[in-house]
Amino acid sequence: MELQRRQDQNHPERKGQKRKLEEEIGDEREISVKSGEARKALLSEVSEQVKVLNSTFSWSEADRASAKRSTHVLAELAKNEEVVNVIVEGGAVPALVKHLQAPPLSEGDRSSKPYEHEVEKGSAFALGLLAPEHQQLIVDTGALAHLVDLLKRHKDSPVSRALYSVIRRAADAITNLAHENSSIKTRVRIEGGIPPLVELLEFADTKVQRAAAGALRTLAFKNDENKNQIVECNALPTLILMLRSEDAAIHYEAVGVIGNLVHSSPNIKKEVLLAGALQPVIGLLSSCCSESQREAALLLGQFAATDSDCKVHIVQRGAVRPLIEMLQSPDVQLREMSAFALGRLAQDTNNQAGIAHNGGLLPLLKLLDSKNGSLQHNAAFTLYGLADNEDNVSDFIRVGGVQKLQDGEFIFQATKDCVTKTLKRLEEKIHGRVLSHLLYLMRVAERVVQKRVALAFAHLCSPDDLRTIFIDNNGLELLLGLLGSTTHKQQLDAAMALYKLANKAMTLSPVDAAPPSPTPQVYLGEQYVNNPTLSDVIFLVEGKRFYAHRICLLASSDAFRAMFDGGYREKDARDIEIPNIRWEVFELMMRFIYTGSVDITLDIAQDLLRAADQYLLEGLKRLCEYTIAQDVSLENVSNMYELSEAFHAMSLRHTCILFILEQFEKLSARPGHSHLIMRIIPEICTYFTKALTKPNPHNLRL
């Protein structure tokens, strides 16, 4: 990730360099080569300028003036990316490379040199503009050796504005030639380009310093040999001094060089820290230059990558507050880099509470809403670190962090995994003093915090603590209050929490065991179903006879015992008429009484449930409820709940409640949803109260 981020940082560098070059030479001419005639005219103009350059390599004032004008024209044309290939096709590169060096002096000629440095400056500038698309061609034509020589011109030339300019253009051209090209970076080192660039960091002209640092920054990226030579040339002390410069352009380039030097180079990182870079880098977090702030945050993240002591030192020296302020910047890259740095710092136990205490939680949680995947992941990784400290858990929950983590839409799978691990870390810490503090908040804090705590408890607490939290400390009341609110989001949060709570309680089951019969159950067996042998009672159902046995019926339910032992007229009757029950239903009911089991299909389950309720056959009711429960859907859950009420089908009722809680969001779009929710709240309350007050075999923990 760090490598990718460093690469991303270098993409804007190339474009920024080219914009800078364009701005300094003047207004760009609008040239288009879309038409054949325009391309032909442009190629003719380029060829004319190349011809001039090839014929003016002398110290003649007229030749120097003509050459200067031609380099200016070619540079002006090269500002338009559409025509760069035409310029190269016209043979401009060899001509420009030739003019990177001064023409030879005639023997004994000591006269003044007209336009000294000007032609070389123009050539370096034009080649710098052509470089992004034609790096290898320019290098193969021999430009590097001449550019490196230009870096040293100050050693044998009097100081002048033109001298400063030619050195700066040479450094800029090397930057563009070496950008993202490992072989050319190596060639620059072989040609001896690194020592003069390091020396130029101390040059009197700040623009030259900046250009030299920019070149070193590019040369150091992903090239260990170049990094080592830059350090060996004693660049670090000067670079660290540049970090303290009041010139934003200077400290921006300096922090970029150092960042590329330390990247994936632990030994250089140690040298940089020993040289005193830490404090000035931290100081750049408060710079007025957002680019320097971004680079400083990235560099601090690199400093903190593996060294635990360094993580602590960074925080002790005051990095946390500015990094947290950067989290709220409108600059997305600034937010990303500050979250990256804080993520590294948050992996140290000593730093975790400090980051949260200084106000880091809320802005980090807000960044989870970002549409930028890297920014989102950096924020999630930081929160993962903060969740490891139990001093942060209550604050995490108090500000709504658990709901934020659960509700987030995360772009990368790695971010989703990180969030899952963060919630797991929080869950592991809900005990002891953390649990006590959260219970205290749930009792005395403002109402919104109480609700957040109750919601978090439902997802994170141990099953052993359910009664303590939701009964003894009124957590259930808070969740039911949210479920009954008029705000959809609060209702949805409460439904999810209650569903989680139900699973933890492990008591809301689609089929509960039937209560034991008051008398020992007797099953005569399949062979006696509707068998006249030993039959002592006949039921008339839809005009058909059903032969039964009183002993089996008496043992099956209170309803039959009342029928045959009580004061009803059926007590002594031989034939008993059964109204309002279909033959198929009655036969299945009797088969259950005789065998204790029966296969129930959906098309008959509701009628059989009605019969089982009428004759108080609890075991058969549960089997019917189980079959019906398999058919509960968004379309029929309301009717199923009514059915459960009509026939006292508690298992089916609880299945409907669970279904409503689980599918709350989908159900909320359907008509009658609000009425259904208000209708089931009392039943939810009754059920959870009963479930959570059952004797717990484990001791409740505080």
From TrEMBL:
It comes from the Eukaryota. Keywords: Repeat. Signal peptide: none annotated. InterPro entries: ABAP1/ARIA, ARM-like, ARM-type_fold, Armadillo, BTB/POZ_dom, SKP1/BTB/POZ_sf. The keyword Translocase does not apply. The keyword Coiled coil does not apply. Residues 535-602 form the BTB domain. Residues 1-30 are annotated as: Disordered. PROSITE patterns: ARM_REPEAT, BTB. This is ARM REPEAT PROTEIN INTERACTING WITH ABF2 isoform X2. The gene is LOC110774148.
